[in-house]
Amino acid sequence: MASVTRQMLDAYPKSINLDRAKLAAVIDTINSCAQACTACADACLSEEDVAELTKCVRTDLDCADVCTTTARVLSRHEGYDANVTRSVLEACVAACRACGDECARHAEMHEHCRICADVCRECEKACRDLLAAMS
Amino acid sequence: MASVTRQMLDAYPKSINLDRAKLAAVIDTINSCAQACTACADACLSEEDVAELTKCVRTDLDCADVCTTTARVLSRHEGYDANVTRSVLEACVAACRACGDECARHAEMHEHCRICADVCRECEKACRDLLAAMS
Amino acid sequence: MASVTRQMLDAYPKSINLDRAKLAAVIDTINSCAQACTACADACLSEEDVAELTKCVRTDLDCADVCTTTARVLSRHEGYDANVTRSVLEACVAACRACGDECARHAEMHEHCRICADVCRECEKACRDLLAAMS
Amino acid sequence: MASVTRQMLDAYPKSINLDRAKLAAVIDTINSCAQACTACADACLSEEDVAELTKCVRTDLDCADVCTTTARVLSRHEGYDANVTRSVLEACVAACRACGDECARHAEMHEHCRICADVCRECEKACRDLLAAMS
To answer: Domain of life here (chains A, B, C, D) (predicted)?
Structure first.
């Protein structure tokens, strides 16, 4: 069944510049990344070696916030402004790269970091692809 | 395949009071509701009869914010405080009920309101069930 | 000079049930609390005894999210729903109490926890007073 | 008296690359902008000519979300990553410019748009100055 994101995009009453199926998939990927980062920050806090993971918690928190905002901006089509969308996507790329890099450093020790790193890489790629499709 | 939420909960290193599969499903439902409400607010702004939909936009925005916060609180297990979780879930029930009621009033006119009303009802029920499971 | 919150409330075009000066003061207090909690979480991550502060980080993050959402809900007057406002304020009271209690435990060791505890207490009181004024 | 933001920055236990007084002022300006935009979106929804203000609501919502995330990223110093901070600030500049431009179009009709436009201009400038100070 189509995700709620896709169903809502299909019900949007006006035209949208981007392909709706593709856009829905990007938003779902970004929302999953926000969720992974929020969960990874908390899992890091629960680890005995939390003192080695403070940078990871920080990049998780940034990435969760940036992804949440990016998904919201991408879900609004009324009064669309390409400059805002593009710069928000670029911030999302930067946050996902930083978080993916940091989580990857702990991926062998902590499964939550491994999953989060993978999700961040996927989200970074999805945002880059959308940026390419916009230009 | 298990959702990212579920994968991250399965990778959480300590014990969690609630059933992980059930908790993951509730978080996914809440995140979908946040997404539906953000999209519905924007779709309402795009309708010609937007003047009839201003209350709907408002309840959508509240519900999106409350759901986003609720999903985050439910995704943190370190230093768990049942009072905070319970009161946040109760706020989510109230926001989903208000938004579901308002969207239902426009469901015949606007497909995005129909979908959003259904998602809000489902989310309200999921939060009520989790509250019941906690006590 | 009046805060931006107060200026915007004075420019609101319709009637508001609550006293505008009082409401503006509560919103400003809640926004300050969100800021203090975000900063305290990061300061805790920077401490050498971070392993003793993981619950504090968690309550900070919850409180920041709940306060941000509460300030947003209180800033919306179109289509006002007292049930939503009340339940969100109650969640804010619970989050501020939990965070104030936890920060107070570290107040002698860490100045950021002392400040954050004070701000949480003030925010909890402001939310309780607003709840009393609503009934 | 120093703002809570400033007090918390002064209590931060490690070094910070930027001047603390200047950084606190920028964060306070960004938080005020988030508040103005949330309030302006709601005030627009309350206007009789809401159909003329739908783009304004949208840019307000984007700007509120981007500012909230930017203030959070700027409030975290542990594991600082200049690339993330810079790209988030650039997104904030873009969101403030779009919202300031749109609100300015309605400033003569609506006092809330006039105030919000001014606050967005101030916030855009503060973010640009911080970007300049970082390089």
So the answer is: Bacteria
